[in-house]
Design brief:
Layout: H1 2-13, H2 19-33, H3 49-67, H4 71-88, H5 97-111, H6 115-134, H7 161-169, H8 174-186, H9 190-193, E1 201-202, E2 207-212, E3 216-221, H10 224-236, H11 250-257, H12 262-283, H13 285-303, H14 309-333, H15 337-346, H16 358-375, H17 384-400, H18 410-428
Antiparallel strand pairs: 1-2, 2-3
Helix pairs in contact: 1-2, 3-4, 8-10, 12-13, 12-14, 13-14, 15-16, 15-18, 16-17
């Protein structure tokens, strides 16, 4: 308890002392407390450990989000940090190097984890505690003395030319053949492939720009055979979806529903739907929340034994069809994809349409989109004053149309969030 008291005092004094003064204060406190055994007088008077841990974790994740980390990475960070803090059972600011060493050792022994996994955990904890140190929440990161875990470097096995030809021979559709050739020719990741649209492909130069890991774009090139197979596949498609390899291809969905390996079918559907939801997460706040919740409910019910393999596949196929229909909503309303996102934000409260005619809501949507386009500024992402000006413009526009109705003040925040998302995306282009 004495060491915790000393560390708490030093942490509170960091803003006022340089390193030499802090070290001298540490020595003085340790010397004068050496004959005492401090005890907390009343634990209830101290801020709840769980609340404090959650606050620090949330602040770290917010910082990482601003730095551009993906939601997938942030979820992994959160899970890793929360598991560590719950297992150790201490306030994050009081965790020591020995606590973390014991945690990593026990984690590896209990879960039979590989050295790579343990080093990934160490790396995340190092980033977390280094951030706490930089922000003066702690005096020194306890991970500093935990070195990188040495792992074996193995050469990954690659497929042979014969294996590639075998895969081509087993393709039953033009879609599968074009997909296999595209992956083999460009070397892109599956996660990059599913984000491609038809107009991303330059057939003349046999190239396309992919949006990859770490939100980085890069140019990739494909060969003549891939070009021909892609053109044949696109020529036989009858849907209007702009996606290069549409999740909503009826033949593809039918193939999945007939797969004998039901577990594989579930994972494939989950992966593809998650990729589509991730697109909405960058463009449409309302649809992102809606489809994420539907998918999560289905997966939770399946994991809890409430749905069989066949039933969860049926639910996810139903969700895939809903996603397909969502793409067509804008066309029916005469709205672009960007405008549809604003319309969804305006109409999120179910009762909104009881107060406004649909034509009026569409008019507000178009005026809102036009206002943002005319007033966007490069300072939007960098200066709070620019963001404040944008919020003021939006509030004045909504107030002019008497939006929202009385008792629905929360609706404005949804619209604000969508506007900020749109503007941030525009500034990244």
């Amino acid at each position: 308890m004495n060491d915790e008291f000393v560390n708490d005092v030093l942490r509170d004094m960091l803003a006022y002392l340089d390193n030499g003064q802090a070290e001298q204060l540490r020595r003085v406190l340790k010397h004068n407390l050496s004959g005492y055994d401090l005890q907390r007088k009343d634990d209830s008077a101290i801020e709840d450990t769980d609340v404090e841990n959650a606050r620090l974790t949330g602040a770290f994740l917010s910082a990482k989000r601003i730095e551009g980390c993906s939601e997938k990475s942030l979820t992994y960070y959160r899970k890793t940090i929360e598991t560590m803090s719950e297992t150790i059972g201490k306030g994050i600011t009081h965790i020591t190097t020995n606590d973390l060493r014991s945690y990593l050792t026990d984690y590896q022994a209990e879960r039979k984890s590989s050295k790579v996994t343990i080093d990934n955990i160490r790396r995340i904890l190092s980033s977390f505690f280094s951030w706490l140190e930089d922000e003066d929440y702690i005096l020194k990161s306890p991970v500093r003395r935990i070195h990188k875990v040495k792992t074996a470097v193995t050469i990954k096995e690659t497929y042979t030319d014969e294996a590639l030809e075998t895969m081509r021979d087993h393709c039953d559709s033009l879609r599968d053949l074009a997909l296999i050739d595209m992956l083999a020719s460009t070397g892109m990741r599956v996660g990059e492939l599913v984000l491609l649209n038809r107009d991303d492909i330059n057939f003349e130069e046999r190239e396309c720009v992919v949006f990859g890991k770490g939100s980085k774009e890069r140019m990739v090139y494909f060969d003549a055979r891939t070009k021909i197979h892609l053109q044949n596949y696109l020529a036989q498609r009858t849907d209007s979806n702009n996606a290069l390899f549409s999740l909503f291809d009826p033949n593809f969905l039918e193939e999945i529903s007939k797969m004998k390996e039901k577990n594989l079918a579930i994972e494939l559907l989950k992966k593809l739907i998650a990729e589509q939801v991730s697109i909405y997460r960058r463009t449409n706040v309302v649809k992102s929340e809606k489809f994420s919740e539907i998918m999560q409910r289905a997966i939770n019910a399946y994991l809890n034994g409430m749905l069989t393999n066949e039933e969860v596949i049926a639910e996810m196929l139903k969700l895939a069809k809903q996603l397909a229909e969502a793409h067509k909503e804008g066309e029916k309303l005469g709205l672009t994809a960007d405008e549809l996102a604003f319309y969804d934000a305006l109409t999120k409260p179910q009762a909104i349409k009881d107060f406004y005619e649909n034509e009026e809501l569409i008019a507000i949507t178009k005026e809102l989109a036009d206002t943002l386009r005319k007033n966007k500024t490069i300072d939007w992402q960098r200066k709070e004053s620019a963001r404040a000006k944008m919020r003021t413009l939006i509030k004045h526009l909504l107030k002019k149309h008497k939006y929202p109705p009385e008792g629905m003040a929360d609706a404005v925040q949804t619209v604000m969030t969508q506007c900020e998302l749109w503007t941030d995306n525009v500034m990244e282009i």
